[in-house]
Design brief:
638 residues; alpha+beta; D-Maltodextrin-Binding Protein, domain 2; Dipeptide-binding Protein, domain 1; Dipeptide-binding Protein, domain 3; 3 domains; eight-stranded mixed sheet; five-stranded mixed sheet; 21 strands
Length: 638
């Protein structure tokens, strides 16, 4: 796992209000019917009514005729107001294949919708396509026999799906995107896309994706696979090395996410290596309900509702989304606090006063203790298991010094873990069981810390103490938490020294690159306390090939545990790429087996996940469960 990362959150938070427009010419700056501001007074001007005079009847006193009733004025309907979002940081690019920052993803979420997305719970949902293809509905199937057997998924583009310039989205747009990603000039590496052998279009609205068979995977590993894209290029980079002895078809737990599309009619004459600097990267044309109308670099970016009909329902009434770029969390909090923004990325609890509408959400990171399995005493699995039992995460969460936190969210449902929870990976505090395990491992714990007699090569017998160093950085409240952990472990028989490394984030040697002697990547530690992103997959974190070293100096996350078990590798392969991964029940069963294996190996002890405050004022229809992209359903907002 890696170092700390920025958070991103959103949820559905309706607000009721009353508003009246100040003037029709200020329609886009007028108050939305959802803002929560008080309505201005309505002044009714009633002209006097003339009284008719009739000649008086004989011996009668003239009686005045009462004035006729004057109807009340009708209030002019108030146009909906744009939504303003405070974004920390500004994107360098808005090309959907290259833009990876959180600020870019928030903008692209409203511009590009795509074929299949993930809802606020991480579950796949059909958007630009009619349905999520599954084995159960026949959209996915196993084709061929023996070594030629392969997964085939068929996607049907929704009727009326279009680019915001009015051109229809076609199957050729998906094929163009696949070939772009698989072009050496694009300099992209997408493991899911690389598993595809062919993508074809029986008609303009149908896309058939054929994943590699076992035979094709072996050919790819050997650099001999021929097809519509440069498989040999990725073989030379080692991307297919793991398939050298593949005996089953390639699949993926997220196979339904493989279809992506780009507007081929705009980019087909732009070489992949030139797309990042093309005008499209600054003003892309998407398939969502909004289009980019203005980007004032260094200040703000505005998306306006597209004039082209958007096929999905229900439709919201937001006419525009304005993203205001701010340098830090304090500036974002200020915009929301002052009413200059209705939404923001999640902020630290307490950054905004209680007068603002906000809800606590879970940050997709985990505070954890990671164990180096190649160093004593954690080269002994029972000692690692004892440490997991000795750490009482509930007590740590209850301590006021920890701040607003919740149960560790180890998995990210926007990865392969949709519709699952991580209960199987949570650690439990039980000092008595921890001591019992240490006894099984040969440690005597009648007196603390635990000790054992060790015979040296010379024949001399020495007493060894169960001790290690816990390395962490100076981030608040980690210093205090490390001391709580120290006390808990001492009660179970461990002797713990604490080593605090100066600096935060990339400025800390704890998180430095391999070639700069980074403590985690070089695995120069006994145990380390730090914050890592919630898992989206197992591969890259727990497999043998992801142990950092000279040949893989800076992996994305990296197996910093140094743990290598071929049996676990096989379970990971089955859960992420095997046939079971395509089945609804099979995926859960295969992932649970990996959970059990990781739990048994006791590679880390999860403590908690921080809580953040998500501010939302005057906007309803926002759906976000704490993971993914805030704007994924922006067309529904009101």
């Amino acid at each position: 796992m890696t170092k700390d990362r920025h958070h991103r959150f959103d949820l559905d938070l309706p607000r009721a209000v009353l508003c009246v427009a100040a003037a029709a010419s200020l329609a886009l700056s007028a108050c939305n019917q959802q803002t929560g501001e008080a309505a201005p007074a309505i002044t009714m001007i009633i002209e006097p009514t003339a009284t008719a005079t009739l000649p008086p009847a004989a011996s009668e006193t003239p009686s005045p005729i009462p004035p006729s009733a004057t109807p009340l004025p009708t209030a002019t309907p108030v146009p909906p107001k744009p939504v303003t979002i405070a974004l920390i940081g500004e994107p360098d690019s808005l090309h959907p294949l290259y833009a990876t920052s959180q600020s870019a993803q928030a903008i692209l979420g409203a511009l590009f919708v795509g074929c299949i997305g993930q809802d606020e719970h991480g579950s796949p949902v059909a958007l630009g396509c009619d349905a999520v293809p599954t084995l159960e509905n026949g959209g996915a199937r196993w084709a061929g026999e023996g070594d030629a057997r392969h997964l085939e998924s068929t996607f049907h583009i929704r009727q009326g799906w279009r680019w915001t310039d009015g051109q229809p989205v076609t199957a050729q747009d998906a094929i163009f995107s696949w070939r772009t990603i698989m072009s050496p000039g694009a300099q992209l590496r997408d493991p899911l896309t690389e598993k595809v052998y062919a993508m074809t279009a029986p008609d303009e609205r149908t896309i058939v994706v054929s994943f590699m068979s076992a035979a094709q995977a072996r050919e790819a590993a050997a650099g001999r696979l021929q097809g519509d894209v440069a498989f040999d290029y990725f073989a030379q980079r080692g991307d297919y090395a793991a398939y050298a002895k593949q005996s089953t078809p390639l699949a993926d737990a997220n196979y339904w996410a493989v279809v992506r599309w780009l507007p081929a009619h705009l980019l087909q004459n732009v070489a992949p290596q030139a797309q990042l600097t093309d005008a499209f990267a600054s003003k892309p044309v998407g398939d969502g309900a909004f289009e980019l109308s203005a980007w004032n670099k260094g200040s703000d970016l505005t998306l306006t509702r597209s004039a082209q009909p958007f096929p999905l329902q229900p439709q919201g009434n937001i006419p525009a989304i304005i993203f205001k770029f701010v340098p830090d969390e304090a500036a974002a909090a200020g915009l929301v606090q002052n009413g200059d923004a209705q939404l923001s990325q999640p902020l630290a609890v307490g950054a905004i006063s209680a007068t603002a509408a906000m809800t606590q959400v879970v940050e997709p990171v985990v505070e954890q203790i990671v164990l180096n399995t190649t160093r004593a005493p954690f080269d002994d699995m029972k000692v690692r298991q004892a440490l997991r039992l000795a750490v009482n995460a509930d007590a740590i969460m209850r301590d006021p010094v920890t701040g607003p936190v919740t149960t560790a969210q180890i998995i990210d449902p926007t990865g392969i873990f949709y519709s699952m929870n991580n209960a199987g990976l949570l650690a439990g505090g039980d000092a008595a069981k921890a001591k019992a395990l240490l006894g099984e491992a040969g440690w005597a714990c009648e007196a603390l810390p635990c000790t054992r007699q060790v015979k040296q090569k010379s024949g001399a017998v020495v007493t060894e103490t169960l001790s290690f160093t816990l390395t962490t950085n100076e981030r608040i409240p980690r210093n205090a938490i490390s001391q709580i952990v120290q006390q808990q472990l001492q009660a179970a028989g461990f002797s713990v020294d604490i080593h605090i490394v100066a600096g935060l984030g990339k400025q800390s040697r704890l998180f430095a690159s391999f070639d700069r002697g980074g403590i985690l990547l070089t695995r120069n530690f006994d145990a380390a306390l730090y914050q890592a992103p919630s898992l989206t997959r197992f591969n890259g974190v727990f497999d043998c090939a992801s142990i950092p070293g000279e040949t893989a100096p800076q992996p994305t996350q990296g197996n910093v545990f140094g743990y290598c078990d071929p049996a676990l590798d096989g379970l990971i392969l089955a859960a992420e790429s095997g046939e079971a991964a395509v089945s609804t029940a099979g995926r859960v069963e295969a992932i649970t087996k990996v959970f059990d294996a990781i739990n048994g190996a006791a590679l880390f002890a999860p403590l908690y996940s921080p809580l953040l405050a998500f501010p939302a004022q005057g906007v309803s229809g926002v759906k976000y469960g704490g993971f993914g992209v805030m704007t994924w359903n922006a067309w529904e907002w009101n």
